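Slide 14.
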Amino acid sequence: MSGHFEDSEPVLMNDEILRKAIDEQTSQDQTERTAKAGGLPFNEVYKIRLEYKNILMISHLKDLTSLTRLDLNNNMIERIEGVDHLRNLTWLNLSFNRIKKIEGLDSLTKLELLNLTDNKISAIENMDSLQKLTNFGIANNLIPQLENVIYLRKLKNLLTLNLYGNPISEEKDYTLFIAAHFPHLMHLDYRLLDDTTKNEASMKYHCVIEEMRLEEQQKQQKEDAEKSLEAELQLHKDAFVEFLNGSQLFQSMIKEDPEADTLQCVTGVAHLLHTFEEQMVELCMQLFQTGLAEHQQREAEVNLFLSAQTQAVTEYQQKASQTLMEFESKHKKNISKLQQVSDPDSLQIKISCHSDEINQLCNTLMSMEFQLVSQLEETIKKLEISISEMVGNFTEFVQGIFAQLREMEDNYYRKVKDIAAETLKKVATEGQHENIPKEVRRLFTDKDAVMDALATAHDNHLQKINDRETQLVTRVDAWRVGLIKEIQDKELQRNRTCVLDIHKYTDYSQDQLEEFLYSEL
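Slide 15: predicted structure.
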């Protein structure tokens, strides 16, 4: 159990440790190619081994975004952390450490192998997102109950499981229990689960497994329904028309009226309110359906742009790659010829010519990049115009709908006010003899209180309508601005990276010539 390194000094991870490990593991050929550039960039590293280094805490890995395999076994690590950005990781070895809890793995959705052998873990948990996991090792830990292992049934691709050395592995029928609850498991504790064991396990636990399967099925159906509702709501939010496909806006107005229920007892008010709700819902549904349709059109326009952008960049990359291949072939021949020149003056002249060729390559690639930038700028401008027109038209429609809603509210307010005035007269002249509920009579004894309540309700209703309009219009415009900015920022970053790569490559090629010249002098 994780008893190694007891007398060793703990080490904190840093860029120096990472760089040293990368350089040690990089092949000699690759080292020569990257030496001039200061070593292999962190975002181009796919595997790294950091075993037996007394590491106490996982950190400084955020730039290793391409990493697919990470070995941190045989260290002094106490927590699983600092791996959030390693979204391409398929292999993670944290065995022989001091970890007490499974955590921090939510973003590792591509993980296929997880080794937590020889730690201090007492519960299997927090692994819901690891749906691609096929191999899980948690031997020699502190898992106390077989029931905890059932949690792993949600990992449908699990084929290899190692629980050896945990307290549960000593329980009676341990192997049959695991085989029954994991019918697709192929290996348990370094051994193949044969058909005989699986059949025996299936017979022994048939009733238990069937009941569990039904429970899981019901739970899954419930989760699927909830996810479907969440996805539907998200679509509505993306279209900026959430909660407009019904009476939600109307209900939000009415529920804040303190006298709403009392007023509905007055003859004619309930009918007016019902008619108002029907008309308002009809308008909201128009807005909702138009919003979804507009969202679909905007998405189609953006996807069309992205497709054209990808095609343009791909064509550029193909041309640039062809140009580089042709240059590389010629450059190698030039270097070979230089090795055969013995006269210093002739050598200097040839090196100068080859240097000019490198400069010409740089100019050619930069010219191609400039053409691509110009092309993409024009494409982005067209997208901006198109999206702005779409958003503008949709905003006009939205404002028209909300203007009608305000008109409806005004009309409702006027009619209710007229009914209130009549009711005030009846209460004042006929008193107790009129068939009016006590709550209404009590309210309508004070004319000013009634009219103030109606005016306040009217103002609140209009405020709700105005707020929803402002929210919708503001959000759709913010989306427009954010979309174009994000596209422009990404294009700027692509351009900067490309220009940097061009200069890095040509500088490296020039350095080769200079080194050759100095070596010959």
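Speaker note: Residues 253 and 461 are 5 Å apart (CA to CA).
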